Amino acid sequence: MAEESAQLRHARSRGPRSNWVPLGIAAAVVAVLTGGWTLLNAGLPRTEDLAAGQSITLGSGQGYEASMSFDDGWELNTGSSTQGARYVFSKGPVNLRVSVVTPPVRATATELWEGMRDIVRVGDATAALGEPEPITSEAGAEGLTGDLHLRQNIGTAAVFLSPGGDFAVETQAFSSDATPTEVADAEKLVRTIRFSRSSGGTP
Amino acid sequence: MSHARPEPDVPPTASGQIPTPREDGQGRQGPGEREAPGATGQDSEGTELPPSAQPQPGPEPEPGPPRTQPLPSLVAAVVFGVLCLGGLGYTLLNFTGAIRVFTAEAVASVLMLAVVGVIGFWILRRIRPVRPPNLAFSLLALVWGMTGAVGLALYANTQLGSAWSRAGGLEFGSLWGAALTAPINEELLKVTGVVLIAVIAPRAVRGPVDGFVAGSLVGLGFQLVEDLTYALNMISMQGATAGMVSVVQSFFARVVLTGLGSHWAMSAVAGTAIGLLAATAWRPGTRRAVGALLLLLLAMGLHWLFDAPLLQSLLGILVKVLAVFVSALAVYLAVRHAYRGRVRRALAEEGEELGIRRSSAVALASRHGRRGELSRVAHPERPAVRARQEQMVAAAEERASEYRG
Lengths: 203, 405
What we know:
The complex is a heterodimer. Chain A is 28% helix and 33% strand. Chain A is of the alpha+beta class. In chain A, strands 1, 4, 5, 6, 7, 8, 9, 10 and 11 form a nine-stranded antiparallel sheet that branches. In chain A, strands 2-3-12 form a three-stranded antiparallel sheet, with no helix packed on it. In chain A, strand 4 and strand 5 form a beta hairpin. Chain A is elongated and about 75 Å long. Chain B is an all-alpha fold. Chain B has two domains: 70-340, no CATH class; 341-400, no CATH class. Chain B has helices at residues 70-101, 103-126, 135-168, 170-200, 208-237, 243-257, 263-278, 286-307, 314-354, 358-363, 367-375, 382-400. Chain B starts with 69 loop residues before the first helix and ends in a 5-residue tail after the last helix. Chains A and B meet through helix 1, helix 2 and helix 3 of A and helix 1, helix 3, helix 4, helix 6 and helix 9 of B.
């Protein structure tokens, strides 16, 4: 028995490898996965130009899909966007965040506006929404709009509930140093939101 | 009367010396750890080994399990601490706002996940054959998953996920980004914690079984924090109109529906690979190195399957969960079988040396067997017998880790 077990034991002619080796590999892995991907991401184009007249499907629910149509000069920040859920558009100094939200239980536009009051505060504790007013898009979608206060800046926010009531589009336009014309461009873009009948679900 | 009683009938070693109790081998040893048993023809206490137990020349020898090297161990501990703090800081930076705004929902989520965490921690420590792993290093594995791994993965995923969308377009990035990002970043970052623990305390990760358990605990910690972040994100994604409903829905999806085949299982498979390498002091033979690589790739492949935009129906999701769970179970059963076999052999040897009946010695390999042996002893003797059992099992595990796997 003892002889048999002795044969099973390790002979150590080469000896153990220094623990610096696995430690070095672990450090290298962390460096590559953090620093390496950062460099790779930074080396890729940040935005994608959107052609004038181009329409983007933002999201869809039961029976309806939401879309937006762009005029000249808008760009899509591809790295910060997720199809069907969240988009970041920019034109000059103006940023427009668009979120497609799916309430877990049926909600009214007013309830969604109150929810958005909380959502904007997640990213910035000073952010606040003003009192909402009704808004109707060019295609007839009805929603609410109001001021968005971010530190020294004022932007606009809006929410449009889909006719099916199972999802909504929320927008927040803001800029640190935009001209009134540029802010007006963002508001104009928001008014292009359209709900069309569709046969599919969320993409 | 039990044959696992404290006093042996015959001199316990070939040299006639009574062995001093071996230290618990579960990673309690710090810097300045002893030289590998057998390396100098002595056992770990410096006792002269019988010729039959001394190293035998043979083909392609593999080094034994690693021993603590003070400086790498110290540096690894510092790296571990810094990365945990960094990961925690980055996670808080990203989620402090959500926790501040949705405080009640965050507390509810933490409470629900805490229950899962306690149960999971108990189960995953309990599944280690023979004895549970050292508590301190189990907690370190959990903490790595909850802080270092999850924070670093959060950052790395943002970068690589963004890169996929920038390089392949929004549609490609949205559809395949998660499947092409998480398996690489998350599996490697989780298993990095097992490597660091193995360097800090080599005796905490002496082989595949320890790697499996450490990996599963890292995965559990990762899963808990990720589940919390998903719950907070879901509140915003659902318009923040019914936060508690969002939290419950998230909990159902992430724990009830998919929890069985999630991070703990994938990391357990990847951790087994690290255990395979650590068992040979990071100098594996070709077969073992290939085995470790395949296990790591299996873990990444399972993660890919889990995140891929395939089989997205409820049935499909259940199939994915089952595939991950069954794979982890198969790996577990294989390493458990091999490890228990080695421990039994070691116990049989010890029994022979101590004059204990083979069946009684081998029975000590399981908790049930130890209880059974204890039950045959009179109550007053039990504490001493229990202590003796612990010593024998610790020594057997030490021996078992020196066997070729």
